[in-house]
Amino acid sequence: VQEPEEKKIALELLETEQAYVNRLHLLDQVFYTELMKEAKTGKTVPEEVVKMIFSNISSIYQFHAEFFLPELRKRMEDWNRNPRIGDVIQKLAPFLKMYGEYVKNFDKAVELITAWSEKSPPFQELIADIQKRKVCANLTLQHHMLEPVQRIPRYELLLKDYVRKLPPQSPDRGDAEKALEMIFMVAKHSNAAIAEMERLQNLWVVYQRLGLEDDIVDPSNELIKEGPIQKISTRNNSTSEKYLFLFNNMLLYCVPKVIQVGAEFQVHLRMDVEGMKVRELKDTEFPHTFLVSGKQRTLELQARSGDEMNAWIK
Fold first, then answer.
1. Close Cβ partners of 66 (under 8 Å, ≥ 6 residues apart)
2. What confidence tier does 260 reach under pLDDT thresholds 50, 70, 90?
3. CATH second-level architecture of 5-190?
4. What is the phi-psi region of residue 262: left when phi exceeds 0, alpha when psi lies from -120 to 50, beta otherwise?
5. Topology of domain 218-313, per CATH?
6. Closest to 269 measured CA to CA, from 313, 224, 229, 312
7. Ordered DSSP codes for the chain
8. Contact, 90 vs 172, CB < 8 A?
9. Which of 7, 54, 186, 213 could bond 32 through an S-S bridge, CB–CB 3.0 to 4.6 Å?
10. Rounded to an integer, what distance in angstroms lies between the CA atom of residue 122 and that of residue 49?
11. Cβ atoms 268, 255 nearer than 8 A
12. What pLDDT is recorded for position 62?
């Protein structure tokens, strides 16, 4: 007898979950546990570093190994009598918020592995040693660590497929649709958390380049565009190199510093975006020029090309 499509997908979910729990076991019970044991002897790396690398992998492992996988297995064994998995996935969804922390920490974890592998040969040797084992399948620690990052999108795809293949009168329809919506929200939440973190990191880097002027540092600002620009001086018909940072609420008109200690730029002028006007100037002597006039003052600026000028104006 041909198995119904939705059952095939539910079985695939169970199989991938089993493989995933094995991978989490390797990360938590092998890599983390052994690196931690060595760290405690004080020979390889500080314990703090190991904890920072693995973030909350232990909680994630426990949850999948002790709760979700067994529940899913029970469901599939009982499928013919009770063909449903939607309710179990609804129980899973809220716990997936735990992934936010792990995913947010991922880039830093990889940087730490690289940095400490250079600093501490015993640390590098221990990792290499574990990687040689059969259970690692010739893959690196970093590769295994990527798996939890990719798991939520995988649930989303499998569940979408499952809902699509369900017969209209299936007893699981209502639950499965609700579960899909919950997983979708968690996936969105975890992507939004990553995007927000990247935005803040990039903003912080910009603030450092500007020398962290107190009244400029504001976490709610958004950097829209930055780049070099020529300032036209109408008095002596010459141009000088400047640099612009355009935020959602202000334009910073800066001078690159000659001596690169600390900040790269000095802020010469802040212009509020509110009430600012921008228009192209048709200047034969200086092509690609535009005029920015704000409450504070008016600037004549020259871009390197027509495209660049249009990008700034836009």
1. none
2. low
3. Up-down Bundle (1.20)
4. left
5. PH-domain like (2.30.29)
6. 229
7. -PPPHHHHHHHHHHHHHHHHHHHHHIIIIIIIHHHHHHHHTTSSS-HHHHHHHHTTHHHHHHHIIIIIHHHHHHHHHTTTTS---HHHHHHHHHHGGGHHHHHHHHHHHHHHHHHHHHH-HHHHHHHHHHHTSGGGTT--HHHHHHHHHHHHHHHHHHHHHHHHHS-TT-TTHHHHHHHHHHHHHHHHHHHHHHHHHHHHHHHHHHHHHTT--TTT--TT--EEEEEEEEEEETTTTEEEEEEEEEESSEEEEEEE-SS-SS-SEEEEEEEESTT-EEEEE--SSSSSEEEEE-SS-EEEEE-SSHHHHHHHH-
8. no
9. 54
10. 14
11. yes
12. 95
Residue type at position 69:
L
Identity (one letter) of the amino acid at 245? F
Amino acid at 176: A
Other CB atoms within 10 Å distance of the CB of residue 314: 7
Residue 27: Cβ within 10 Å count:
21
214: pLDDT strictly greater than 60 = no
Per domain, the residue ranges of the chain are 5-190, 218-313
pTM over cut 0.85 = no
Say if CB 151 and CB 69 are below 8 A apart: no
The token pair at 116 is 């400490």
| 82, 89, 151 from 17: Cα distances, Å | 20, 12, 9
Phi-psi region of 138 (alpha: psi -120 to 50; beta: other; left: phi over 0): left
**Closest listed residue to residue 230, CA positions, set 306, 301, 305:** 301
* Distance, C-alpha 198 to centroid of its chain: 6
Q: What is the distance between the alpha carbons of residues 147 and 61, in angstroms, rounded to a whole number?
A: 12
Intra-chain end-to-end CA distance of the chain, in Å: 62
The residue behind tokens 């009598």 is: 81
Q: Cα 83 to chain center, whole Å?
A: 37
Mean pLDDT of 113-137: 93
